[in-house]
Amino acid sequence: LIGLVLRRLAQIALTLLLLSAVFFFLIGLMPGDPIAVAIAGDPKLGPEDAARLRALHGLDQPLWWRFAAWLGALAQGEFGHSRLFAQPAAQVLWPALLSTLQLLGVALALAASLGIALGALAAARPRSAGAVDALAILGQSVPAFWLGILLIILFAVELGWLPAGGAPGEGQRALGFLVLPVATLALANLAAYARHGAASIAHALTEPHIRTARARGASCARVLWGHAFPNAAVPLLQVAALDAGALVGGALITETVFARPGMGKLLYDAVLGSDFNLALLALLLVALVTMLATLAADLAQRALDPRVVR
Amino acid sequence: MRKLPALFLALALASPAAAQPRDTLTIGITQFPSTFHPNIDSMAAKSYVLGFARRPLTAYDADWRLACLACETVPTLANGLAALETTPEGRAGIRVTYRLREGLRWADGTPVSSEDLRFAWEAGRAFETGFGPAEFYRSAYELIVVDERTVTLRFDRVTFEFASAGDFTPLPARIERPRWEADRRGYRSRTGYDTETTNPALWNGPFRITSVQAGAAITLERNPHWNGAQPAFRRIVVRTVENTPALEAQLLAGQLDMIAGELGLPLDQATALERRAQARFRFHYQPGLIYEHIDLNLDHPLLADRRVRHALILSADRAQIAQRLFDGRQPLAHTSVNPLDPAHDSGVRQWPFDLARANALLDEAGFRERGADGIRRNAGGERLAFEFMTTAGNRSREQVQQVLQGMWRQAGVEVRIRNEPPRVFFGETLNRRRFQMAMFAWISSPENVPRTTLHSDEIPRAERNWSGQNYMGFRNARMDEILEALPEILEREARLPVWRELQAIYAEELPAIPLWFRSDAHVWPAWLDGVRPTGHLAPSTLWAEHWRLR
Predict the structure, then answer these.
(1) Minimum distance, in Å, between the CA of residue A191 and any CA atom of chain B
(2) Nearest to residue B28, comparing CAs of B275, B285, B263, B277?
(3) What is the pTM of this model?
């Protein structure tokens, strides 16, 4: 097992290196020049200022040279400075990452637990499958931004129960600011777990050992959660692992609608603003989280199913 | 399940919608400052926030007059604080004396002094420091400290704007000079403004920054050493909400007290909100210096014909568009000079909608025949068709484009819409002049001489590394003469006829189709008074000490 983990970690490191080159050149080759955009917004910036500022930000150097310089600095543990936020890139990134992990963690847990419960209901009570399916289709087809706006109108503007968005200020409880974004993100992702859960558990319920358990007089709940679910959980783990990365995309929408600072929005701004250091670090972090989640899912799968040997 | 209502109740109590004491004002804006250093990078969000916390030497006020903020008297030739002279190189120069206001202190109690101005000047003159616009520092070749509160600047160029110190603002030398001297090139990332933003020694306005939540909120509290009018609020919270529907929702939910017009709701959203929430908020629409227009590429053979340009403006019912889309709240533009600007000429040629005259002009230009599609053609069969671009995603501009497309079709002119993200539009297309018609806005300051946009030397070319902002390719010898002479005419009365001629050439030649001047929509709580939006680059927050409770 240790060998496997070390091998996978080495693969992750190599993948990150390759990804960093791909990300760097893709961002660098995007058309447009951030200094030209700045000039359009400031009548006092002239051509001489533009040339000076380009040199100052290193934007007058060839792309390969900038990449080499970035890698060199990274090797010395220097993550660089964010051009957009005038702060060390890592310092900008950590609070955003924590905020997004908080949002994604709670949303993922809620979506998975509710989705699997609904899936189990559909598998164990086939007559309820239609209702669960309808709910899943509804969850999948309602755009997250629209659902978010509806929730804001109802719970923040009309009822005034919850904040409409933003980040908690001094002395404000974080929980209230989390409810609507989590609900939006979780509802949008619940459908996948409900459908995969229903299919996996229904399949597991047809296994011979389930019949044996029933013959031994095990209760319905015991059969469902004690015997069928551990087998059905294996594919669901993979769904959850892949979701960890995909949810960042969902977080962008949720964070935008709820004006919640986080990785999704930060990544978007950094890429569009040609903030190389920040964009690269953020993209690599998202890739790292996804790969680590996949590794964790693989390890969990091995633990749940001893037949899996790689 | 019985715990659920209790949970909701607890959350409701935790909600910021709960009543806040009236000594706090919470403001929503749509951008977060990229830096808190007054001289690094210009951006509206930074100007707005720093307006509470620092005072520049001078600024244009809400009446568009130059006023002293950190200084005592605006220097003029008449009061002797400005004097013409000759530079050591024998050029015409001017020396200008500023005296800092008595009692002006940093929020740690230290007096603001000439040394703070000297440091700001030295750092600005060292171009590796990376201050934004550097023209002021290039021209100010010497700073003489007269006494603890007085400095004299010597300029190697005489312009009528000599008294305006622009972004020249005292910087706390005690805090900043050691950082700057240690590493001038790295000063941008080492400045105390970004590494210890809440240090009171950095701020000299009526408020000081006491907390920063990156990307989300900035809290300011009263500067105990401020000796001007005492502000009505103990605390100001500026929250950033980039998404304007979310900004509106937070206002309606009570999380925000007001939305700043300088960086707030688009006009159409504000007018819609006004219809729904008139009773709760006061709405103020401030026309400003953001000039919406359509640049025409004059190197395009069809657009080079002045009759075609005249026909385009005559067949565009701009007044109707402004009325329908913006509730008539954006004043029509006839040139790039704003009607509120002292340089504006109200007698300048205007172009009211006149489709018949437009048709006659296009006939005259050789586009007599109309094809089955209704589009005009000339004798050579060439269709009267153009590509029309703007910034993709700007809903308001995209709506205007569609309306104009329909209006021009009536005149037999086809425009094909092709929009690009701002980054590509401003960063590639405009400055390389790869467009035919391009709709965007210029922002300027009062009596701003439009040299960078209208002088023939400012046409972007490959040999100039595509620098310059005369994207239209406008070449007019008389305009060039005016643009060179105008800054050097010191008497306002003497400048006015020259400004009139400049506007007359612009209105006649129409290198761009003027549309309107954008208005800022300010949304204030009913209990707030005293906010005076300026409509130009100086934010209303520079006078925040006069904001009062009703």
Answers:
(1) 24
(2) B263
(3) 0.82
